[in-house]
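# step 3/5: fold
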Amino acid sequence: MNGKPRIVSQRYLGSAEEVMARLGEGSSGDSTSSEHRSFGDLAAVWGAMNRLGVINIIDEVVGERRSDTQVSVGAYIALATLNRVVAPCSKLAFSEWWAGTAGDRLVRLSAAEIAHITRPRWVGWVVTWTLSGSGPKDFALSFAVDEEALRQLEDERFGKRILFSDREDWIVADLVGTYRSQHHVESDFRQMKDRQVVSFSPMFHWTDSKIRVHMFYCVLALAIAKLMAREVRQSSMDMSVREMLATLAGIQETVLFYKGDRGRPRARRLLTEMKPTQQRLYDLFDLATYAPKR
C-alpha cells in the first residue's frame, strides 16, 4: 500500500526445517488420520447450563467438594444432566460416550476422575475376592458373595418407594386449570420415556438417596432441554426437542492428525460444514464460544 508492503494475513507454518521437509516431500502436509467427535448438542446444552449457573447454584447449596475428588457436586450433576439430555446411558458407559465427544475441551476430566464418577457402588461390601499366583501363568481369581453383608446392606441402605397424591387443599379453579394444562405434563412424561434423548432411563439405582439424585438430574435435564426449545421457538424455528438436538448433533468436530518428524502427531481441530438451520442454532446458542480455535 502506497508503495510499501503490508501484512494482510499471517500464519505460523512451523520451523524452517519442517517447512523445507514438507516442500520436499510433497504430500507430507496431508493429514494422516482423523477423528469425529460430538460437538453441537454437547456445547449447546453445556452453554445453557453455564448461562443458568447450574454448577454454582448446586455447589452453594451442598457446600464444598469432598476431599477425595477434584469434581464438585455441582459439576457432577451438570455432567450427569449433560449426558441425560444428549445421550442417556449408564454410569459404566459414561467414559466410552465421553471419549467420543469434544467434552474434554469444555471441562477437564482425568481418567481417575471419570473412574471415580462412574465407579459401581456397594460391590466391595458384598463381594470378596482373592488373587493368587506369582505370575500371569499362575494367576487365579476366586470370589464369593458375602450373604450376611448383603442382608445388612438390604436392611441399612436399600429402601422402598411409595407413590401417592393428595390435592384436597386445592381450590376448584386450580384443579380445573391443572387438568386443562395436563397435556404439557403428559408431553414431558413422553419426552422422559424417549430412550434417545432427555430420558429417565436407564436407571441402575435402588436406594432412596440415589433414586432422588437420579430424578433430580433427570428433571434438570428436562428443564434445560425445554428452555433451549423455547429459545428456538422464540427465534421463529418450530422444532421439537428431539429435532433440535438431532440438528445440533449434526455439527461435528473433526480432529486432523499430521505426522511430524519427531514427537507426537500435530492435531488440528475444525467443525464440519453446517446447513442453514444448523448455522442458525450455532449462532443462537453462541457455540462459537466453545468451537475449536485451531
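# step 4/5: annotate
Confidence is low (pLDDT under 50) at residues 161-165.
# step 5/5: archive (pending)
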